[in-house]
Amino acid sequence: MKRPQADAPTRRTHFVDLAPFRRSPAFFRLWLGGLIAGIGGQMTIIAVGLHIYDITGSTTAVSLVGVFALVPMIIAGVYGGVLADSFDRRTVVLVAEFLAWGSTVGLALLAWNRVDELWMFYALTTITAVATTVVGATRSAIVPRLLSPDLLPAASALGGISFGVQVTVGPALAGVLVATVGFQWTYTVDVVLFIAAFTGVVTLPRIIPEGGSRRAGFAAVWEGLAFLRRAPNIRMSFLIDIVAMTFGMPRVVFPAVGALLIGGGAITVGILSAAFAVGALLSSVFSGRLGHVRMQGRAIGSAVAVYGGFIAAFGLVLLVMDHGRAAGITSSFDDANLPALALASVALAGAGASDNVSAIFRQTMMQSAVPDVMRGRIQGVFTVVVTGGPRLGDAYVGLAAATALLWLPPLLGGAIVVLFSLAAVRLHRSLREYDALHPTP
Asked: Higher-confidence residue: 356 or 258?
């Protein structure tokens, strides 16, 4: 497949660059299909949790959905990348999408037939997680074949918009549908929305990896890992992201913050969670100038340092509220401290925005600096990083919060993220001098 040529003029607006849509109708169809199907996927994620809790009344039972899927997702991330580098990527996505769609159909059938066997829910959601992991790694490897290199930052920003819409609209729709028409129709709506994913992929041409050998065994996995060892810029970008997600992901403390410090209970938890997604969405909407940033290694370090600063600011808000509680100023479960909630939300929105900016440059670096024949495998490893990092973060926050100082994990973790990201760019010359016009892995 012939790759489009670059001819984009310099932009003078901060609004997201829509040139990828104009220059590549195939990319637009792929993006739109993923957006519509992703909304349905987020609906089902929420619906499954509510459904299992409705059956069992157990939060632990709900959490096992992620526990059972974690290891298969990691395997799928690594081996799915091998498949993307060995076969027609269009075919790989279609097969994986069909498996994900079939598991969604299975959930709908369970609901319509009122089958309450938990193992079936766990099995079907694990199949969905595995299939969507393969889809994610392969779709990311497809995008550079549809667009010229100068449009990859804009494509990543548009991907951020798509994800932001999915994680805001999907859960909201799930709540409304489950409450009004029940689990059966909620799953069925996702079954219908999923068809959009097929529409976006079916219209793609065949996309054979350039230089691919069609070897899909473990040797191909090791070949990908060996390449990563020879790719210091990609490797360091992964390491910075792991540190940021491990020490700067305070979502585990949100329920306690809503109950003990800021008040407001579940509503506060929802607002804090949404603030991060809103910040990420807004940063994508106003990402128009990012496509002309050449020193993307420095940009990654700066964005992650800003991310750590916002997380530390969130911890500082919690520290002030903790001191206020010690002085007798209390917040109740029902009534939130609105100024504190506003400040905490702004801090998390800033963290979401800066994290998304970092993600745009990291994704662009992978798509432009990694050879096409390795792109699926490196995207697969990146999927493992994105999947495992937040879970390591949950463990860190849980251990740090055991001190009963809820402000300590974000305040300390944010400081660690700032120092590490700045030091990484300072000490790693190759990343510091990375130039988008001359990408090197």
From this structure: 356
Same fold, 16-216 and 231-441: yes
> For residue 2, what pLDDT band results from cuts at 50, 70 and 90?
very low
User: How is the chain split into domains, by residue range?
Assistant: 16-216, 231-441
DSSP class per residue in 344-373? HHHHHHHHHHHHHHHHHHHHHHHHHHS-HH
For residue range 76-114, what is the model confidence (pLDDT) as tens digits?
A: 887 888 888 888 889 999 999 999 999 999 999 999 999
Q: What pLDDT digit, counting tens, does each position of 115-131 carry?
A: 988 899 999 999 998 89
CB 417 within 8 A of CB 243: yes
Q: In CATH, what number does 16-216 get?
A: 1.20.1250.20
Q: Which CATH class is domain 231-441?
A: mainly alpha
DSSP code, position 10: P
Q: What is the DSSP secondary-structure string of 259-324?
A: IIIS--HHHHHHHHHHHHHHHHHHHHHT-TTGGG---HHHHHHHHHHHHHHHHHHHHHHHHHHHHH
Angle, helix 152-180 to helix 118-146, in steps of 10 degrees? 150
- Global pTM value: 0.77
